[in-house]
Every structure is written in C-alpha cells, then in structure tokens.
Specification:
- The strands form 6 sheets. A 6-stranded mixed beta sheet has the order 6-16-17-18-15-19. A 5-stranded parallel beta sheet has the order 8-2-1-12-21, covered by helices on one side.
- A hairpin with a 6-residue loop joins strand 3 and strand 4.
- It is globular, with a radius of gyration of 22 Å.
- It has 2 domains: about 160 residues, 3-Layer(bba) Sandwich (FAD/NAD(P)-binding domain); about 220 residues, Polyamine Oxidase, Chain A, domain 2.
- The two termini are about 15 Å apart.
- By secondary structure, it is α/β, with parallel strands linked by helices.
Length: about 400
C-alpha cells in the first residue's frame, strides 16, 4: 500500500510497537504507529523531574544476556555487582547472621517451587513453603513486590517459565530514555486514540476521533488492561479463545515512588543499596527502596499488589503518605527531615495502561501463546509483554514480541 494506506498499522508506541516498526521498515514494509498518549515508550518512561534520570516504569534490563535491548544500551552498570541489601526486622536492621538465615530460607522457598510438579497447574502459594519465620516475607517479595500481585493469584507454571534472571542492568540514561531513543525517526502519530478496529478484511481499518486509517494488517500492542476494559472495539468481535486469554492474563500493579533528598543526609545508605522491611503483624505489606542511584540525590521505591491498587484508587497523596510512613519505620524521624519532594507513578489509574504488567492466572500460561497467535489470516496480531512466554512482564519480552509480530505481518 502507499501514501496514507500503509502495509501495517501498529497501535501503541511502547516497546513492542517500536520494535515492530523498526523490524518492518528494515524489511521494506511501510507502517504507521498510532499512539494514544503524548509520548512514546509506554510503560517505560524516564523523567528528569527530580533533577536526574528517574524511571517511573521499567527500571532494569533483566536477563541482559538474552535481552535484545542490551544491544542498544549506553553507559550502565550491573546493579547486582554494587547492590547491598538491608532487611529491617521491626525495630532494627537484621544482623549478618540473621540475613544469612533469611537467604537460606529464600533459596529453600524457590527450590520448593522449582521442584513442585507444574501439572496440574495451580497457584504459586499452593506449592510454596508456609509457616516458617521468613516465608511470609519471601512470598510478599516474590509476589506483590516483584510480580505486582500476591502469589495466590499466580500460575505456578507461568511463574517458573517466566522467572527473571540476571544480569540486571541499570542504564544511566534510564530505560525510558533508551526506548525513546530507539523510536526516533519512526512514523509515529501521537494523540491518536484508536477506539475501533475493523479487521473483517480485506485489510483493516482503525478509527478514532482523529479520523480513520486503512492498512493491510494491524499489530495491536496496547496493554491487556486496556483490552480487558474494552478500550478498543473489534469488528468482528475477537474469538472466544482470544478473549479468554486476555482475561487469563490480568494486570498486576507495581507503583513507583521517589523522593528527592532535602539536605545532605543520605540516611546511612550507600548508592545502589536497597532496604525493605520484614513482613510482620504491624507491616503486612511493606515497601522496598533503592538509594541514591549513580550518586543522584533521590531514592525510589515500590509498593505492589493489593496494597498498591488500594492506594492507587485513593490517589497519589495517599501513596506518598504511606511511603513516608514506611521510610519512617526504617529510619525514624530522620527520614522525614531528609526527604523532600516526591513523585508517584500512576499506572493503575491511567486509562492508557490500567496496570503495570501481566501475570497468568492458574491454568493460563498457555494464554500467552494464544494471545500472540495471528488472526484473520494474519490481518490482526497482538504483541507486548503479555504475549511472550519467556520474558513476560519485561521490556525485553515486549520487544521480542513486537519483532515476532512484524515477521508474521510482513
């Protein structure tokens, strides 16, 4: 096709959409990327609002040896080589011996999952150790604070098959800036919300308040949160199997909070170190924190799962207040004196995302492949982190999924 009728229409300019566009152009295919928002990158977004690069979404390049974005990274470091972890027990930080006991329990916890039968599939918590002194803290960390959802709602099969590995690279420019750099020069149209997509053939037609655009094929890369909420009306309706796959891969939530230092106090924490609280009756859903990355004068932290959703619905002020209280529990009044202005991400309430990244409900690991399967003789493909059966939930998985969809549509 020519002119305003491209070969391929891409909906969404996140990692998957950018990767698909680059792959198509490299193969001589014409494409147009329609992005609903005011920027590219999707859930990878770097801001300078606190005076230094800060990722409000994707932060690390996980599994860097297999991550396609590693090929484009600028100055960076492997966070695992400089990170030192600190665990707070309620009134004090754990001793070296106590922390060693925690990590032995952590290894035993993960070994129990790895050695548990994956069929029939069930939730991670049904296979996890429970009742030990560290088990609740480990489950909270692996569930809400990493997967954005409590382990009771996560497929064991999917958890094991998408388990993240190192190295975990931290780009100095920020992951969002890296992704935005890779979008430069692409045919992206911002502020183009697609509300309807007709894929009845021949070809596809996308519509929105901006008008309509016809193409030979379409790659849809919007989040599963948007798809599940009916953000795009499809004509004809999506097959039942595809709809079931979307419902089987819901969005978790990991809200990011950052504080800029107020003065010279660095709370006794070295750059790149992290701290979190053990799960207790008083702190059943604690947060986690990373301090002074690259020597910057800010810290960032996360709250995930059910608590993140609850705070998100209350608004950013509630999340900020909870974060200040969490840091006060770690450092006492010193924290409030040391921390100034704050930033809070909004992935849960933003209608363009409706969450952070997907997890599979028990029995739904295969839904990732179902969602990625082309429809209408290749006229319609879905791509994004939800569609990758190995690197789900990551920018690398989204990128690889976009490249795969481009090959299918090419």
């Amino acid at each position: 096709m020519h002119g305003n009728d491209p070969d391929v229409l891409i909906i969404g300019a996140g990692c998957a959409g950018i990767a698909a566009a680059r792959a198509l152009i490299a193969e001589g295919q014409s494409c147009v990327v329609l992005e609903a928002g005011a920027r590219v990158g999707g859930r990878a977004f770097t801001t300078q609002a606190l005076g230094a690069p800060l990722d409000l979404g994707a932060t690390w390049l996980h599994g860097a040896r297999e991550n396609p974005l590693s090929a484009f990274i600028g100055p960076h470091l492997d966070h695992d080589t400089v990170r030192e972890r600190h665990l707070h027990l309620g009134e004090r930080f754990a001793t070296a011996a106590e922390f060693a006991a925690y990590w032995r329990a952590h290894a035993d916890f993960e070994a129990a999952l790895a050695n548990s039968p994956q069929t029939p599939d069930r939730s991670v918590m049904q296979a996890a150790p429970q009742g030990g002194p560290w088990d609740a803290t480990i489950a909270h960390w692996l569930g809400a604070q990493i997967n954005g959802v409590e382990l009771g709602g996560v497929s064991l099969e999917d958890y094991l098959k998408t388990d993240l590995t190192g190295p975990n690279l931290l780009p100095r420019e920020g992951v969002g800036s890296l992704v935005a750099r890779l979008a430069e020069g692409l045919p992206i149209r911002l502020h183009h919300v697609v509300t309807r997509l007709d894929w009845s053939g021949p070809g596809v037609v996308a519509e929105g308040d901006w008008g309509r655009l016809r193409a030979g094929r379409a790659i849809v890369t919007v989040s599963n949160g948007v798809l599940a909420a009916g953000g795009i009306a499809f004509t004809p309706a999506l097959p039942a199997a595809t709809q079931a796959a979307i419902q089987g891969l819901p969005m978790g939530l990991l809200t990011k909070i950052a504080f800029r230092a107020r003065g010279a106090d660095r709370l006794g924490m070295a750059p790149f170190h992290n701290a979190r609280r053990a799960v207790t009756r008083e702190a059943p859903q604690p947060m986690s924190w990373v301090f002074w990355p690259f020597g910057a004068d800010h810290i960032f932290g996360f709250v995930g799962g059910a608590r993140a959703w609850d705070l998100s619905r209350q608004g950013p002020a509630a999340t900020e207040a909870a974060a200040r209280a969490d840091l006060a529990a770690l450092f006492g009044p010193r924290a409030e004196a040391a921390l100034g202005e704050a930033l809070v991400s909004n992935w849960g309430e933003d209608p363009l995302f409706r969450g952070s990244y997907t997890h599979a409900r028990p029995g739904h690991h295969a839904s990732r492949a179902v969602l990625a399967a082309p429809l209408g003789e290749g006229r319609l493909c879905f791509a994004g982190e939800a569609c990758h059966a190995r690197f789900a939930g990551t920018t690398g998985g989204a990128w690889l999924s976009g490249e795969t969809a481009a090959r299918i549509s090419g």
